[in-house]
Amino acid sequence: MLDVLRQPENTHLLEYVTRDPFGAHVFPGDTPDYSPEAFLADLDEQLRDTAPIHLWSYIPTCAYRCRFCQYPVVLVKGDPGKLTQWVDWNIREALLWLETVPSLSSAPIGEFNVFGGTPSLLPPEDIARLLDFYRSHFNFGPETTVRFEGDPSTFTTEKLELLAAKGCTKLSCGVQSFDDPVLKLSGREHTSEMCVDFIREAQRVGFERISIDLMYGLLDQTVDSVRRDLDVVLETGVNSVVCTKLHLKSYAETRTGVAGEKPAAWQVDSYRARLEKDGHFWPTLDEQYEMRAVLTEGLRAAGYVEHPTMYFAAGGIGPEKWKSIMVDQDRQDAEVAIGLGGSSSCRRSEAITDVNWQTYAAAVEAGRVPLGSATAFSPEGQETRAIKMALTTLQPLRDSLHRNRFGRSLFDEPWAGRFRSLEERGLAVLTQDTVTLTPAGETLVEAIINTEF
Ligand code: SF4
């Protein structure tokens, strides 16, 4: 991959990946300082007649803080009262959204996810209360799928069985690595054995989709360690894997959903210097691409499909539904995030919920939807966003779909020159109706959409 990046015509891509920003999930508007009230009005209008949307609840509680974590986390070790409080605030915030965006209550929910933080830390009665609330107040139908996120140390058998009984068919679990020293240095308070036990128990209970997060580029991680991660994935047969590169560029700068205020420990220069002085090391860019290749090629050879970028699913179970709702070229529907730092969007604008827990709580207590900021998309910005999102799916972009929605062709300017340039550099293949990324284009999709569109 570095050969491609070192071509003079790809200097901007090399600079982008070297600067280490995180952008594949981020599609901020091109018109800043939009009012949150205007965003809520745009959303309400879009939801009056909509295909199924993505609804999610963010529970920010964690028992410890990982060294790479930039999320707005609230530590609650040994304080169950705080957990219950966050469920109370989440439910109150959801009621405020329903009041302020009247069409939200009837909008069909394609997928409802409880993300975190570590929602699996919640006591069983709060898990049940949260899921029952959303099911009874939003438009869940037979097609609505429900997922719950957590970590391997807190997904107990009792909680897994409760989740299954409440109609939850999907789980997401932060594993990050199956290498114990790498986990320890990352600040994770679980072992690789606990991760495998979680997968086996979730399979026994019968969840349809069990998704684990793996990271590459971690402190002291080697290509061999990632090879062993792949072996464990294949041995356990876990059917969904999200592979993320460690990103230490500030999420707040890129408007990444759920960006917190506090830097991750690994973003602090003096701490990084101390780690390096103690003999620890970061994988080089070359090694990071090798790690990515190990995972991508190994998973593909075993029949997993990558759709969208970084999300791998075993053959037959299909792409992640919530990602498809957001980014597939024929969908790109709304997303509503309820909870500290969540990102919500519709076709005209997007907004991020307050990331400071005190001002968040004060807004909810005062009866106001606690949005922190919003941006809008100009007509050209909406078209650009649609192309960028569709490219991240790694599926062919269809000119016919684009023309139906925007009235002009992908092969007219201003797009034609950009796609031709990708083709000349071996990053895409064009046919009469489609643009398809090549394997090199797929690997670099995040850099391409953030520097060329
Ligand atoms: S990475 Fe996840 S588990 Fe770790 S502190 Fe952040 S939110 Fe909590």
UniProtKB/TrEMBL annotation:
Transmembrane segments: none annotated. It holds the Pfam family Radical_SAM. The keyword Hydrolase does not apply. GO terms for biological process: porphyrin-containing compound biosynthetic process. The keyword NAD does not apply. One of its GO terms (molecular function) is oxidoreductase activity. Residues 48-292 form the Radical SAM core domain. Signal peptide: none annotated. Keywords: Oxidoreductase. It comes from the Bacteria. GO terms for cellular component: cytoplasm. PANTHER family: COPROPORPHYRINIGEN III OXIDASE (PTHR13932), RADICAL S-ADENOSYL METHIONINE DOMAIN-CONTAINING PROTEIN 1, MITOCHONDRIAL (PTHR13932:SF5). This is Heme chaperone HemW.
